[in-house]
Each structure stands twice: as structure tokens, then as C-alpha cells.
Write a structure and sequence with these properties.
Order of helices and strands: EHHHEEEHEH
Mean pLDDT: 87
CATH architecture: 3-Layer(aba) Sandwich
Number of strands: 5
Shape: globular
Distance between the termini: 58 Å
Strand order of the largest sheet: 1-2-3-4-5
Helix content: 25-40%
Amino acid sequence: MTSEPSGSPAEAAQRAEVADRTDLDRLAAEARAATAAARGGRLLALFDEPQGRLDQLLTAATEGTPGHAAWIGTLDSHAVGYALATVELLPDGSSLAVLHEIYVEASGRELGVGEALLDAAIAWAVAQGCGGIDARALPGDRATKNFFESAGMVARSIVVHRDLPATPAP
């Protein structure tokens, strides 16, 4: 936890546990709703949500499965954000942390909650021996891009897309 001037809200990030699932599920639903209408949000949801993938990752993280972690971000002890990460083994034997989700409710933004969550995820990734950490930002989401860039993260790949007219498969 960082120290705050007297009278300021105190932000923190702590490892999520099974008892945090209600807050995690609520925050995950809010995150999905917030991105659904954004450019790229529909396809992101299709890739991330097949067969309850997010639920499976949250379960693994809160139950302590190695290579999985989740954090709850709080503001004055109220859950206002979360992050979810896993370790991915790469073909050369090295590992990469993948930050699948990082979300903070509007009431907790610009107050250090997101930074506390990202700092916790980075510290965990270092402890896991990961050589880097990846996260995604939707196109046009300048606030998220700025957030990641302020933490020293830079784009290493850009996915481009074009919608095509629906045609029957042969």
C-alpha cells in the first residue's frame, strides 16, 4: 500500500482468494460491459469468453493454482478493481506473464488503484521468473494505452482487423 496524505483515500492491491469471488465476478461483469461496445470489444469477448474461460482463470487464481494469480484493488477497503494474470511458457523455455484483465471502476480511477494492481502483477511476474509481461488495450482506448505506457510498457504487436460481409460457408 502506498502512503497517502491525511484525508485522501487509501488504495491497495492484495492477492484475491476464494472469498473474494463475489467481488471478482461483479468487477469482471462490469469490465465486460464496459468493453462490449468499444471498438474491438466484441471480438475480444469472443476470444476471451469461450466456455467460461474467464471463470476458469479466476477459479484457478483464487484457488492458488501455480502460474495463476488475481488481485483485488481496494479504495478505503472497498473493492473497486481487479487484475488477473497467468504465466505462459514460451517455445524457448522462457516464460511470459499475461495480464488477461485489469479493470478499475470509474470511482477508483486516477487514485492509484490501477497502479497498485499493475505493480502487484509485475512483482508477481518477476517472482515467477517471467522475462516480461503482456497486456492488451483496445484500439482508441487512449487512457488505457497511457496507463500502460506510464508503467514502461510498449506495444510489441498490433492486430489489425476488417469486418467482412457474412457469407455462407461452402
